[in-house]
Design brief:
The chain is of the alpha/beta class and 419 residues long. It has 19 helices and nine strands. This is HDOD domain-containing protein.
C-alpha cells in the first residue's frame, strides 16, 4: 500500500506495530505496542504524546485489544503527560503495562504521578534503564525493567543488572537483542524476559478508521464538564459522531472494560461506560486524531442513521436502536467492509447483530430500506416488499428522508456555527 493510498477519503489508516517478548523457555508472554506513521515504517515516534494517544486509541477501540494481543500482556510506551495525569488513561490497570521512556525526566511530579498510578493498580516498566540515568527513584514502583543490550557495554549492562537485583521484586527484560551473542549474555546474566530482532521483529497491523468530528467532541467535552451533566445531550452528541460511536461501542467490550453485557443503543453505551470514562475517551481522541472528517461523508452516515430512525416508527422498532443500526450499516458501506467483520468484538445486542449481518427481522428490513433508498446504484425494493414500506408510502418515505437530511444539516450547522 502506498503512502498516498493510506489516507483514503473516508478515513485514515491506523498502524500499530507489535514486538514479542519471550520468557527463558522461549514462550511468547507479552508484546510491546508501538505507533507507526506508515505500514512500511521501521521505527516509531516514541516521544510524542499524540503518537502514544493513537496507540492507546487504536489498541482499545480500532483493533480490539484481544485481537492485537491474543490475551497476552501489552506494553505501551507513555510520555510525561500521561504519567502526571495531564492526559487520561481510559482503561483499567490490568489491561496494559505502562512503559516509562528513558527520555522522561524524573522529577517530583513524575514520581508522584507514577506512585498514584501504581496505587490505582497499574503495572509499570522502565525502558532502557541505565545506572545513573536518573530513573533510580522509580525502581521501587516498577515491576519490569528493560535494559538495552544494543548500545550499552557489557560493564554498563552488568552494573544496571546489579542495581536492579537490589530490588528483589523486579523482573528484568533484555531488549534490543540483535545478535546471538547479546542473547547469550542476557541468559548468563539471569534476565527473565527477552525482546529484540534476533527473536522477532515488530509486526505491523493496519486498520481503517473513520475520520472524527472534532467539533462534536469539543461540544461533548463542554457538556461532560458541566456541573449537572445532561445525559440526553451527551447521548445526542455521541450519536452525531459516527467514529466516536463506533469506538465507544468497541470500548465497552469485555476485553477493555471487564463488563459482561450487551448494548443495543447509544444510550446503553453511554450508561455502560459511564460519564467519566467517556470524558476520558473523548479527551484522548481529541489528542489522537490527526485528520478532519470529510463533511459530505459524515453527513451521509448521519442522514442514513436518522432516516432509519424515522422509518422505524412505522414498524414498532425502537428509534434509538434503528439509529445505531443505520449508523453501523452506513459505516460498513463507507469502508466497503462486510458488516460481520466490522462488528467483531462489539458488545451489541444479538438482534441488532442479526439485523446488520443477515438483514432479517423488522430492523433488518428498516436498514435495508434506508440503504436502498440512499444508494444510487441500488435498486429500490418494490413498494410494500419491506415492513418499513408497508407503513410508509412513497411520499411519506420521501418526507422521512428529507426530514433526516434537514435534521442532520441543522446538527452540522450548529456544530460549525461561529467556527
Amino acid at each position: 500500500m502506498s503512502e498516498q493510498a493510506e489516507a483514503p477519503e473516508n478515513g485514515h489508516v491506523v498502524h500499530v506495530a507489535r514486538q514479542p517478548i519471550y520468557d527463558r523457555e522461549g514462550v511468547m508472554v507479552a508484546e510491546e505496542l508501538l505507533f507507526r506513521a506508515r505500514a512500511t515504517a521501521s521505527g516509531a515516534d516514541r516521544s510524542d504524546s499524540q503518537a502514544t494517544a493513537r496507540v492507546l486509541v487504536a489498541a482499545f477501540t480500532e483493533f480490539g485489544l484481544q485481537e492485537l494481543a491474543g490475551g497476552r500482556v501489552c506494553f505501551v510506551n507513555l510520555t510525561r503527560d500521561f504519567l502526571t495525569g495531564r492526559l487520561p488513561l481510559p482503561f483499567d490497570g490490568n489491561h496494559a503495562v505502562l512503559e516509562i521512556l528513558e527520555t522522561t525526566m524524573v522529577d517530583d511530579a513524575v514520581v508522584a504521578g507514577v506512585t498514584e498510578l501504581v496505587e490505582q493498580g497499574y503495572t509499570v516498566a522502565l525502558d532502557r534503564f541505565t545506572l545513573g540515568g536518573g530513573h533510580e527513584p522509580l525502581l521501587p514502583l516498577a515491576t519490569y525493567v528493560k535494559i538495552d543490550m544494543l548500545h550499552a557495554t557489557e560493564p554498563e549492562v552488568r552494573a544496571a543488572v546489579a542495581e536492579c537485583r537490589r530490588h528483589g521484586h523486579l523482573r528484568l527484560i533484555a531488549e534490543r537483542l540483535e545478535t546471538p551473542e547479546a542473547l547469550h549474555l542476557a541468559y548468563r546474566l539471569g534476565f527473565e524476559l527477552f525482546q529484540g530482532d534476533v527473536l522477532g521483529r515488530p509486526h505491523v497491523n493496519s486498520t481503517l478508521t473513520l475520520a472524527p468530528a472534532r467539533l462534536t467532541r469539543l461540544r461533548m467535552l463542554q457538556a461532560l464538564s458541566a456541573e449537572d451533566v445532561d445525559m440526553d445531550e451527551v447521548v445526542d452528541l455521541v450519536g452525531q459522531d459516527a467514529a466516536l460511536s463506533l469506538r465507544l461501542l468497541r470500548a465497552t467490550n469485555a476485553a477493555a472494560t471487564g463488563l459482561n453485557r450487551t448494548v443495543s443503543s447509544i444510550r446503553d453505551t453511554v450508561v455502560t461506560l459511564g460519564l467519566n470514562r467517556i470524558r476520558q475517551w473523548v479527551t484522548l481522541m481529541l489528542v489522537a486524531d490527526l485528520t478532519e472528517s470529510d463533511p459530505e461523508q459524515l453527513s451521509g452516515v448521519l442522514v442514513r442513521a436518522r432516516f432509519a430512525q424515522f422509518l422505524a416508527g412505522g414498524v414498532g422498532v425502537p428509534g434509538d436502536v434503528a439509529y445505531i443500526g443505520g449508523l453501523l450499516s452506513a459505516i460498513a458501506d463507507l469502508f466497503d467492509e462486510p458488516a460481520d467483520r466490522m462488528l467483531q468484538d462489539l458488545p451489541l445486542d444479538p438482534s441488532l447483530v442479526d439485523a446488520l449481518t443477515t438483514g432479517r427481522g423488522p430492523l433488518g428490513d428498516v436498514l435495508a430500506t434506508a440503504r436502498a433508498y440512499m444508494t444510487p446504484s441500488a435498486e429500490m425494493p418494490p413498494a410494500g416488499a419491506l415492513p418499513a414500506q408497508q407503513s410508509v408510502d412513497t411520499a411519506d418515505m420521501a418526507m422521512a428522508y428529507l426530514s433526516a437530511v434537514r435534521a442532520t444539516n441543522a446538527t452540522l450547522a450548529e456544530l460549525t456555527a461561529g467556527v
